[in-house]
Design a protein that fits this description.
Rossmann fold; 6-stranded mixed β-sheet; 6 strands; about 40% helix; about 10% strand; binds 2-phosphoglyceric acid; His_Pase_superF_clade-1; 2,3-bisphosphoglycerate-dependent phosphoglycerate mutase
Length: about 250
């Protein structure tokens, strides 16, 4: 049996403003920093002690890991980072207000772009102010892998090699693994873990800053579907709020 803990970053400055973020590298809001510290305290209270940490290369996930580990007295843990855990690239929606986008394009199109499995938003132009083309942290990324937009299916495809090549070996070695990432990269991982269907995944939302614990069997599949939030009541309310963004 292996323990995996998933943690979505705390509220970011753009979550607070209701903007589509994707690969834009925004920082945590003060609320998000506190959420992250609380996430660390929840792990301590539940007796969950990660041995290793994996984060995306986006600042909000890195800051969340640091705040959570700091609160848990575990800042010294080994950390690996990968672009494969990044938030879904939101294409031309990056930087746009969610409520305004819903008003402009209608609820059906908004929901399709936001939660469908295989409909990506239009691509983001390389010279757009919110493009990541030229960002130093992607220097070693083969140019053909650099996204201009992604649907959730694309995220599953680029995330799974990291799951199998980097996270599963840690679990197989008996380590408790903490993954600090994003709403949609974690939806992609949960879809894989729980075997959620392409249509059903539209209904799954992940709250900020609340650790989600999975016990995994020898095939690295959940012993209990859906895992367990370390604060289930807070998670329920926060999930509802994420689902209703833009409304
Ligand atoms: O803007 C984003 O990058 C994501 C997560 O904050 O938004 P959504 O939950 O709408 O997919």
């Amino acid at each position: 049996m292996a323990t995996l803990v998933l943690l979505r970053h705390g509220e970011s400055e753009w979550n607070a403003k209701g903007l589509f973020t994707g690969w834009v590298d925004v920082t945590l809001s003060p609320t998000g920093e506190e959420e992250a510290r609380r996430g660390g305290r929840l792990m301590v209270e539940a007796g969950v002690r990660p041995d290793v940490v994996h984060t995306s290369v986006l600042t909000r996930a890195i800051q969340t890991a640091d705040h959570a580990l700091g609160a848990a007295g575990l800042l010294w843990l080994p950390v690996s980072r990968s672009w494969r855990l990044n938030e879904r690239h939101y294409g031309a929606l990056q930087g746009k207000n969610k409520a305004q986008t819903r008003e402009e394009f209608g609820d059906e199109q908004f929901t399709l772009w936001r939660r469908s499995y295989d409909v990506p938003p239009p691509p983001l132009a390389d010279d757009d102010e919110y493009s990541q083309v030229g960002d130093l942290r992607y220097d070693l990324l083969p140019p053909e892998l650099m996204p201009r937009t992604e649907c959730l299916k694309d995220v599953v495809q680029r995330m799974l090699p990291y799951w199998y090549d980097s996270i599963v070996p840690d679990l197989a070695a008996g380590r408790t693994v903490l993954v600090v990432a994003h709403g949609n990269s974690l939806r992609a991982l949960v879809k894989h873990l729980d075997g959620i269907g392409d249509a059903e995944i539209a209904k799954l939302n992940i709250p900020t800053g609340i650790p989600l614990r999975y016990e995994l069997d020898s095939a690295f599949k959940p012993v209990k579907a859906g895992g367990e939030y370390l604060d289930p009541a807070a998670a329920e309310a926060a999930i509802e709020a994420v689902a209703n963004q833009g409304r």
